[in-house]
Amino acid sequence: MYTFLLLLLHLLKEYVGNNKEMHACMQLQDQVKRMLRLSKEDEEAVEAFHKLHSDAADKGFGRLFRNPSLFEDIVKTFLLCASRFEDSLGRAEKLCNLNPERKRGRRKRAQVNFPTAHEVLSFGMSKLERTLGYRCDVIFDLATDVVSGRVDLDRWENSITDGDELYKELIHRKGIGNFVASNILMCIGFYQRVPLDSETTRHIKQIHHHCGVNKVTDEMVKDIYDKYAPFQTLAYWFELLEYYESKVGKLCLLEKADYKKVTGSLIEKRISSSSSSSSIHICDNLVI
Question: How far apart are CA 147 and CA 113, in angstroms?
Answer without folding.
Answer: 18
